[in-house]
Structures are given as structure tokens and as C-alpha cells.
């Protein structure tokens, strides 16, 4: 039964995360708590296929975790168009420059902590963003499938992979290509693991942040489900508290 095979493969993944990544996840919690305790902020960028929305504004989630997802896109045709051959005097990568502009225009500050991720680690946009964040003194926690990353070349012009910029790397522990199971009669493996891994790691980091803040005598602000009676009112009070304390 393929569904049971997949469930068992997920169990294997979770056991691997506990055995190999738990210490790093707790380190991540300490990094974030230290930043929050000293006036910093905690952000998440889009990771893989939908992990950022999974973490934000959730019942039981941290108010301190904020999204960072710049979405504009500028091309030469949008802002200036000239058919003449006029090469630039200096090298310029539009994706790098947009990432730099987004970081500089944002509320990110040196010492903030940002969760970034790419299953393969090679995605040009993720590498550009990591580069821009590091240039601005931000601390990076990178989620990458290291077995996958070892098999690929960077899509970024620098040749670097996402984890080359990270202060802390957490391995998603998913296989090359992400799909987890071979099925007789199919030409490619099926059923990816990265979504399960990313969401689990991110929630474990949030748990580690709660532990680390409470150990410092700081009580984090958390969301109540907005669909529970009194939820919106509770969350409004928590937002006020977070605005005053920053955690």
C-alpha cells in the first residue's frame, strides 16, 4: 500500500530530524531569542512550496515571526527601453539588485534573524536574497536538503549555493530530487518529503524560541485561533503587547 509506505517514510524522516538536526534547531531558537531579547526581529522568507503561510498568523504561533516576501519585478522594458548596443561599464544582475533594494527598503535591521530556504539550495532568487541579507548584517538560518545540494550546480551567477551564506544550516534530510518512493511501472520516484520537513523544522524552531525566551524570563506573545470565541479580541491584545515588547 503506497500510502502506508509514504507514512513510514515520513516517520523515518522525522526520526532523522531528531537524530541529526535537533541540536541545530535548538541553536536556531537561541539565535532568535537572543535577537528578540535585544530589540531584534524574526522573519521568514518563502521556503519551498508554501511553508511561509503555514507559519504566519496561526493559532498557537508566534507573533514575533513576520513574513518577508518582496514581490515586485522590474525589467528593462518596464523602466527604459533602448535598441542600441550600449553595454554597461560594470556588471549588474537585476535579481541581485532587486533583492538589495528590497532589503534596504524593509524594516530588516542588522542583528535580525531570517529563516531562508531552498530544497536544492541552488535557486537564483533565494541565493540573491541571502546575499543581500548578509550584506546588511542579518543573521541567516538556512533550510536546505544537503544531499540534494551536493548534486546540483548553483543557478546564481556567483556559483554559490544558499547555505554558503548562512550562519546556521539545518538539513531537511530529503533525497536528491525530493521524491521519496520508487513505484514499479513509473519512470520517476513519487511523493516528495520537503513540505513535511520544512513545516516540521520551522515549528520546531518556534518551539525552541519559546523555550529560549521563557528561560530568559520573557513570555512570548502567541496567537489564539481567530475561529475560537474571543480569539480576535485576544489576538488584538497580543498585537498591542508585541508592539510594546517586541516578543
Instruction: Please write the string of helix (H) and strand (E) elements.
Output: HEHEHHEHEHEEEHH
> Structural class of the secondary structure composition?
alpha/beta
Q: What is the residue-mean pLDDT, rounded to a whole number? A: 92
**Backbone CA Rg:** 20 Å
Give the overall form.
globular
Overall tally of structural domains: 1
CATH class assignment: Alpha Beta
Task: Please count the beta strands (DSSP E, at least 2 residues each).
Answer: 7
Largest sheet: 5 strands, parallel
Query: In DSSP terms, counting alpha (H) and pi (I) runs of 4 or more, how many helices?
Result: 8
| Fraction in helix | 40-55%
Strand % is 5-15%
- Which architecture per CATH? 3-Layer(aba) Sandwich
CATH topology: Rossmann fold
CATH superfamily: Glucose-6-phosphate isomerase like protein, domain 1
Instruction: Name the strands of the widest sheet in spatial order.
Output: 2-1-3-4-5
Q: What is the distance, rounded to the nearest whole angstrom, between the alpha carbons of the first and last residues?
A: 46 Å
* Low-confidence region ranges: none
